[in-house]
Amino acid sequence: MMPRKLTFALPVLLLLSVCNEQRDIPPEPINMPDEPETYVFERNGNSTVDFSGQTTRIRMAHELLDILIDPNTNSELAIQMFRNEGVGGSDVDPFSDPDLNASTKSIRSKVAASRDLFSSNTVKSQEIRASIEEWIHAQYNISFSNQDSLAKPGQAGQIVDGSKTRYIGPTGLEYDQLVAKTLIGALMTDQILNNYLSTSVLDEGTNRADNDAAIIVEGKNYTNMEHKWDEAYGYIFGNAPSAAEPLLTMGSDDRFLNSYTAKVDADEDFKGISEQLFNAFKLGRACIADGTDFYSLRDKQIADLRQLISQVIAIRAVHYLLQGADVIDNGNMGPAFHALSEGYGFINSLRFTREPNSISPYFSHQEVDQMLNDLMSDGPNGLWDVEIATLHALADQIAGRFGFNKSQAAN
After folding, report:
1. Beta strand pairing call for 164-168 and 157-161
2. Beta-ladder partners of 47
3. In-domain check, residue 113
């Protein structure tokens, strides 16, 4: 019996000794770059920040949304705005802003176009782009062409939403809302999370070595890595009056990711998300500016940004599903269809989210397609027949994947 006691006691004493020794060792300090208070980065006294292409596409998308609610425009003009294929040679300049007409940029070219999710899945990319164009055509050829008719199950037309008149398709969908909310995922979120913040883009080729040596792009004042990070930043803060301090006007700068991040921030359950996003972008950019020693910390900011931006999409999807359920319960179909059309677009955008430290979105294409099918298939007339239980089940599914309670997103 004695040997057994000694055999047991000795490791315990050694363990206690090791633990005591470990408590006496101070933790190693975290190596941090100098983090600026604002998004200001300079080289030789001049700014290294440039995201003009992102600002251009946000403004193009704004003009597209403007005409999609105007029955006096036409689908050909809207498609021209989406594609911008004329670029100086078109008989009609689609945009009211001459700078946009002169631009070689387009919305369509960056939709579902990320390196990580779509470089090897061009079929799905083309399918998503085609869906957006189908909704643009449907807004004119179905909803607006029946604008003088009262909408009813299976019949497109107008429906009252409070003091507003909205135009819906035969299944209750507002096609302009499908376009607007899908662009938040397919353009802004996909380009940020799956393209410009991808290490396959940031660290492509000699980017790390060039960044460490401060080798700038020919004719520019930034390294390639700096520019890629700024392009990601531009898709959420690129239309702010002050790129250096975008939180001052957060929510009023665009009708896309910036706006809906601010809406999530206004919910006490998710207060502070805008500042968290800004701080992660700012710190990550500082890591790049300081180079060699900070790439692991940069990648930690990427993981945080993927989680936070993906959460915005999920929270708004759940919010609109529950809002639709509430107004259906009260018999108000006009606002219900509006909320659920927004919800449809945000659910569609879940396919562009990105799990931190992963190559996968939070929901696969198959899962998103199934959720959209579930939303529309409680009866032959789509949203006219949707059941409240279906809306709550979808809300539970999304909230559960992201780890929040659906009631938190209801406000």
Report:
1. antiparallel
2. 42
3. no
- Beta carbons within 10 angstroms of residue 262's beta carbon: 18
Cα dist from 322 to 362, 374, 394, whole Å = 20, 15, 10
Name the more confident of 409 and 17: 409
Look at residue 80 and tell me if it is in a domain. no
- Given a cut of 50, whether residue 147 has pLDDT beyond it is yes
Rounded-to-10 torsion of CA 224, 309, 133, 55? -50
Structural domains of the chain, count = 1
Tell me if 64 sits within 8 A of 76, measured CB to CB. no
With H, G, I as helix, E, B as strand and everything else as coil, classify residue 147: coil
- Look at residue 9 and tell me if it is in a domain: no
Q: Give the model's pLDDT for residue 8.
A: 31
Token output for 104: 């070689």
Distances (CA, A) of 168 to 82, 113, 263, 383: 21, 29, 25, 11
Q: Which domain holds residue 291?
A: 136-409
Confidence band for 108, pLDDT divided at 50, 70 and 90: very high
**Residue 277, in any domain of the structure:** yes
- Contact predicate 344/178, CB 8 Å: yes
